[in-house]
Specification:
α2 crosses α4. A hairpin with a 6-residue loop joins β1 and β2. The model has no long low-confidence stretch (mean pLDDT 95). The protein is of the alpha+beta class and 167 residues long. A 3-stranded antiparallel β-sheet has the order 1-2-3, with no helix packed on it. Strands 4-7 form a two-stranded antiparallel ribbon. The protein is built from 5 helices and 7 strands, in the order αβββαββαββαα. The protein has 2 domains: 44 residues; 100 residues, K homology (KH) domain (GMP Synthetase, Chain A, domain 3), CATH 3.30.300. The protein is globular.
Amino acid sequence: MPSFAETYEAIKSDISKGEKNFNVECTMLPKGAQVEIKMDTKPFVFLIDAPVGLDGTNEGPSPLLAILGSVGACIIAVTKFWSKIMDIPIEEMKVFSRGHINLAGIFGIDDNIPPGYDKLEPVIRIKSPAPKEKVEEMMEKVFSHCPIIYNMAGNSPLKPKLKITQT
């Protein structure tokens, strides 16, 4: 398995080596609002659910919580990349992802209310011996290169394809 430095240098010399396709399979389970998520070839398997008041069993995070977790995890992962690229040590880092939603938008009660988060506010706390200006410069790179931030800003076309099997 190559190191980060080897991967980075390989992509720097040939950007086509950075191309990847990811696939995730989501299967509805019979219990509550549970969904089994299978990712990658390993596979990574986990459960997404909903709170009891939303027909779930609360045995796993909701899709909305998974979004918040993905925002924080991606910011941390991309920060680790940029800390290596810019040679900025990070001693400690936490992201507190916050989102606000009104469920009336999901339920179609008021079509003026968005059916998703109307604001996402990750709060990033970093401990580093590097000068504050260098950490701020690195974080600007992180914010402008984080794939989840990019996708959440509506930059990736999302084109659902419906396939119906009649029984």
